[in-house]
Specification:
This protein has one helix and 18 strands. By secondary structure, it is mostly beta strands. Strands 7-8-9-10-11 form a five-stranded antiparallel beta sheet, with no helix packed on it. The longest helix has 8 residues. It is globular and about 60 Å long.
Length: about 300
């Protein structure tokens, strides 16, 4: 918490500060949220070396993520984080960590139950990370992780990004050509998949009844598969809608793939204009969810 990080909430500017005030003076008395107001009317929290150490609750008005539900309800925006790979098993001890010669990666050395191994990893400006694993069994493997990918699998192509549709983003019938999607690692026992793409409260892609053997939807084919499609953003046709924000600023879009035990019985077995984002999410809660993966991207309009 040494470096303050500020972010906006509806009731003002909030900051996280370390064990001193922003001007370097000693911490003034903290309230029950582990923070207090500054002289200019803004509010900030503090991290301390004694209990409760960090903020105990959020003060003020927050926005709840409509894609989550109690008791796991979260606020938005959330920092994006994804695991690179499953952790090794056994008694793991990290023994050393050194920066590589180009300054864009590290060599991490470790032991698992006394046997040495290492991970040599580095990244690019495009946020692609390469791992070279020297295993405790003497093997060497290389893996590449792209944060622009769903679950570390295939990436959303540039053609599938936000903005005004280009020629290859528009189908011959005038409808927007859907972005390409690909995924992997569907949980065992999955009976059906569902996909949503939204910038709340608007939805841009609603699909359900997707067979779990399906691992991709090619560019422009979201309306052509053996599954069912819901309403477009405007509620006029069953179609994909290309995200194209008319207002200035940054607009966040989220693609979520759901692994379900079965397709909810309440959903129609055909394309339906009546299926909105709200209706689809409510239906998904009626069946067991075995897993989900989410990709979030931003559209910046000047």
């Amino acid at each position: 918490m040494a470096s303050p990080s500020a972010y906006r909430r509806n009731c003002g500017l909030y900051e996280h500060n370390g064990p001193s005030e922003p001007d370097g003076s000693a911490i003034r008395e903290l309230d029950s949220f582990h923070g207090h107001e500054a002289a200019d009317g803004t509010y900030h929290y503090h991290g301390t070396e004694s209990f409760p150490y960090i903020l105990t609750a959020l003060r003020g008005q927050v926005t709840l993520d409509p894609m989550t539900s109690a008791p796991q309800t979260q606020i938005i925006p959330q920092a994006r984080t994804e695991a690179f790979r499953d952790p090794p098993h056994g008694n793991l001890i990290i023994t050393d960590l050194t920066v590589n010669t180009t300054g864009n990666g590290y060599l991490l050395e470790y032991e698992i139950s006394g046997t040495p191994g290492s991970v040599d990893y580095s990244w690019t400006d495009a946020d692609v990370t390469t791992f070279v694993f020297h295993g405790v069994d003497g093997s060497t493997t290389t893996e590449v992780f792209d944060r622009g990918a769903i679950g570390g699998g295939s990436e959303i192509s540039a053609d599938g990004g936000p903005g005004t549709p280009s020629d290859d983003q528009t189908q011959s019938d005038g409808a927007d050509a859907s972005i390409p999607l690909a995924w992997s690692g569907v949980p065992e026992g999955t009976g059906a998949l569902a996909i949503t793409m939204h910038h709340f409260p608007n939805s841009y892609l609603l699909l359900w009844g997707i067979d779990p053997s399906v691992t991709e939807i090619a560019h422009g084919t979201a309306a052509e598969g053996a599954w069912f499609m819901g309403s477009d953003k405007d509620g006029t046709v069953t179609s994909y809608t290309s995200p194209c924000s008319q207002s200035t600023g940054t607009h966040q879009y989220t693609i979520t793939i759901y692994a379900l035990a079965e397709t909810p019985a309440s959903l129609p077995q055909e394309d339906s204009l009546d299926v909105t984002l709200t209706l689809l999410l409510a239906a998904l809660e009626s069946v067991a969810e075995l897993g989900r993966t989410t990709l979030t991207f931003n559209d910046v309009t000047n």
